[in-house]
Amino acid sequence: NIFKQMLNYLLATIKAMPVDDYVGFTFFVGTMAMMAASVFFFFSMSLVEGKWKTSLLISGLITFIAAVHYYYMRDYWAELGDSPTFFRYVDWTLTVPLMCVEFYLILKAAGAKTSLLWKLIGASVVMLVTGYFGEAVYTTGSSPALWGLVSGLAYFYIVYLIMAGEAKKLADKSSPAVQKAHGILCKFVLIGWGIYPLGYMIGTTGWYDFVDVIGLNMDVVYNIGDAINKIGFGLVIYSLAVSKD
Ligand SMILES: *C/C=C(C)/C=C/C=C(C)/C=C/C1=C(C)CCCC1(C)C
Questions:
Q1: Residue ID of nearest Cα to ligand 1 atom 18
Q2: Contacts of 123 (CB under 8 A, 6+ apart)
Q3: Are 115 and 91 in contact (CB under 8 A)?
Q4: Residues 6+ apart with CB under 8 A from 14
Q5: pLDDT exceeds 70 at position 18
Q6: Cα–Cα distance measured from residue 179 to residue 107, given in angstroms and rounded to the nearest whole number
């Protein structure tokens, strides 16, 4: 299908780039893209109705926090030629909860409670802390696979909450525009966030090492995931905010 074709094209383009360090290049492009997206989201705040301003502010904060981390990660990679795992996880621990806030904000009009927000944030923190353990702390034997599994369970709990549980029920009671935005955000979480476990499988050792045959660097996979998800999420919020709803 079209997405597969686009992804293949993107990967081929990255690999064929006339730079000797294509990983470093994706950190550089990532920094620029996140910066540009932040400017766009911050400026858009003045164009939308009051009730959407906070959502756009959060969109801008997500890409802005990422831009700052990318700036440092680009440096780290350039200096040491090593994965900036710590910066990466600090970035995610700040931005993923903010993405949960986006769900909460668009469902607030339908009666979303802060308890739902805390469930989403709690699950994302479990997902990220256990992922960090497997990637940076307990890195030998079957530990990465085990921590990755726990992380995956927390991830599927998030998917459950938004696609079938509490958040989905609230979305069903929402306006058509919010329903549509919620549906697209769900797809980002299901498909877009699904890119990260692939990076994890490439970067750690375990029974899943066959994933390595793609021949991609773990950081490139994470960088592609971040660009799609952080900027994509913001654009969904933006189009909801400018829709007549
Ligand atoms: C902007 C950053 C985002 C949206 C990061 C999302 C990260 C994940 C969904 C990570 C998930 C992981 C698993 C589901 C299992 C393996 C370990 C992780 C942390 C890579």
A1: 131
A2: 154, 155, 157, 158, 161
A3: no
A4: 22, 25, 26, 220
A5: no
A6: 9
Closest by CA to 232, choosing from 197, 174, 181, 165, is 181
Decide: 145 and 207 in contact? Cβ < 8 Å. yes
**Which amino acid would we find at residue 107?**
L
Give residue ranges with CB within 6 A of ligand 1. Answer: 92, 95-96, 127-128, 131, 148, 151-152, 155, 193, 196-197, 200, 226, 229-230
Q: How confident is the model at residue 187 (pLDDT cuts 50, 70, 90)?
A: very high
Residue 211: predicted pLDDT: 86
Cα of 127 from ligand 1 centre, angstroms: 7
8 Å CB contact between 97 and 127? no
- Rounded to whole angstroms, the Cα distance separating 144 from 176 reads 42
Instruction: Determine the distance separating the centroid of ligand 1 and the alpha carbon of 196, expressed in angstroms.
Output: 5
Closest CA to 52 of 88, 105, 4: 105
Contacts 24+ apart (CB under 8 A), 64-73: 64/34, 64/35, 64/38, 65/91, 65/94, 65/95, 65/98, 66/30, 66/34, 66/91, 66/95, 66/226, 66/230, 67/31, 67/34, 67/35, 67/38, 70/27, 70/30, 70/31, 70/34, 71/31, 73/27, 73/30
